Amino acid sequence: MKNLKKLAALVLTASMAAASLAGCSKNTETKTETPKTTETADTSDTSETSKTSETSKTLKVALCLSGAANDMGWCQSAYEGLKLLESDYGCETAYTENLTPDDIEAAFADYAANGFDVVIGHGYEFGDPAIEVAEQYPDTKFIVTEGEVSADNVASYVTKCEEGGYIMGMLAAGMSKSNKIGFVGPIQGSSLVKIMNGFEDGAKSVRPDIEVQTAWTGSFTDTALGKEAAQAMIDNGADVIGHCANESGTGAINAAKEAKVYATGDSYDQNGLAPETVLSSSVYHIPHVIEVAFQTVADGSFAGGIYDLGMKEGAVSIASYHELEAKVPDEVKAEIQKKVLSIAAGEFTVTCDTKIR
Fold first, then answer.
1. What digits encode the pLDDT tens for the residues 125-146?
2. Nearest-angstrom CA–CA distance, 247 and 70
3. Per DSSP, what are the bridge partners of residue 145?
4. Which residues pair with 306 in a beta bridge?
5. Which of 47, 69, 296, 336 is most buried, judging by how many CB atoms fall within 10 Å of its CB?
6. Are 108 and 140 spatial neighbours (Cβ–Cβ below 8 Å)?
């Protein structure tokens, strides 16, 4: 697998501080949500305990995001997890979106200093800042999704995103007529490299000789860079485009839509962005991951460490083909379904390769 030479400039010049989806401007202002009241289903049954009864106080939970909370992708999935904690556990919640790496430590410290019990950083880039701030605030629990860090009050919860990438690669290879496909990533990091590599491995499991073109935009939020990267691949013959590029990936989907070639989504069921283009999506059930992590705080069992969750644990799934199902050959659907069941049953393991190829 090799990167397109014409895209090298994208990696060198891309900025983290880019425009966000749907015209949202950069915003690092804290937003506090008013919690809803949680009701116990049957108060007469003493064998069932309310989710909020594990603590005598309302827990305060903050979420930090690298992009917009309404991106219909990676960040929105975490925001929905925060809302779940608010509605199901009665938590007091707040969030900050569009954080750059330089903003993260200050955001973490601000939440901890203001008495938040749990601070969640959504993405691998929040790992090192969590370790730095956690030492100063030992009474605050820090949870990092896709992190590779741990401490007494820091836990990382890693979604096996490579599993979804593998299946999207199989689908792309099965649908390609040119035997050329493309994949767009944002900023190089282990949790993203493993998806790109999984996509290539899945594609080559179907067609060993397929050409997989790749590019890194250098941004999580710049849709123009994502579109430019995908367009270069399309110009070079790719007829299916995949991504793991957050909002930048929306640009890749837009390029595929305009060129009338297929695309695959990531993090969220992204068919709604381009119903005639997005075949399926790798869906990461981040609300479930966040709830699993939060429950350890609520029940007092929190322990620093690194925890992995995939299809087997209900953290990863594949979206439906929607109205494009008729376009996908039965043999392709059958092969994909067989592989999904095999992964979920623990019979097949997708290689988690975090080395840039």
1. 999 999 999 999 999 999 999 9
2. 10
3. 122, 157
4. 156
5. 69
6. no
Tabulate helix, strand, coil % of the chain (nearest 5).
Answer: 45, 20, 40
What is the three-class DSSP state of 324? helix
Give the 3-state secondary structure of residue 110: helix
Maximum CA extent, the chain: 67
| pLDDT for 170 beyond 50 | yes
User: Distance between CA atoms of 292 and 302, rounded to whole angstroms?
Assistant: 11
Q: What residues pair up with 262 in beta bridges, in sequence order? A: 240
Is this structure's pTM higher than 0.90?
A: no
pLDDT above 90: residue 176: yes
Q: What is the pLDDT of residue 72?
A: 87
Look up tokens 């009665």; give the residue: 90
- What's the average model confidence in pLDDT over 306-331? 97
Find the angle CA(296)-CA(299)-CA(302) to the nearest 5 degrees.
Answer: 35
**Residue 174 to residue 87: CA distance in whole angstroms:** 41
Complete DSSP assignment for 261-272:
-EEEEEES--GG
- Does 56 score more than 70 pLDDT? no
Pairing of strands 60-64, 118-122: parallel
Question: Where does residue 210 fall: left (phi above 0), alpha (psi -120 to 50 degrees), or beta otherwise?
Answer: beta
Token readout for 5 is 């030479």
* Contact between residue 254 and residue 224 where contact means Cβ atoms under 8 Å apart: no
Q: How confident is the model at residue 356 (pLDDT cuts 50, 70, 90)?
A: very high
Question: Which pLDDT value is given to residue 12?
Answer: 32
Helix/strand/coil for 350: coil
59-68 as b/e, with b when 16 or more CB fall inside 10 Å?
bbbbbbbbbb
Secondary structure letter of residue 36 according to DSSP: P
Q: What are phi and psi for residue 268, nearest 5 degrees? A: -145, 155
Q: How far apart are CA 23 and CA 187, in angstroms?
A: 22
Give the Cα separation of 61 and 117 in Å (integer). Answer: 6
Check whether 240 has a pLDDT greater than 60. yes
**Sheet with 305-309, side-by-side order of all strands:** 31-33, 92-96, 60-64, 118-122, 141-145, 154-159, 305-309
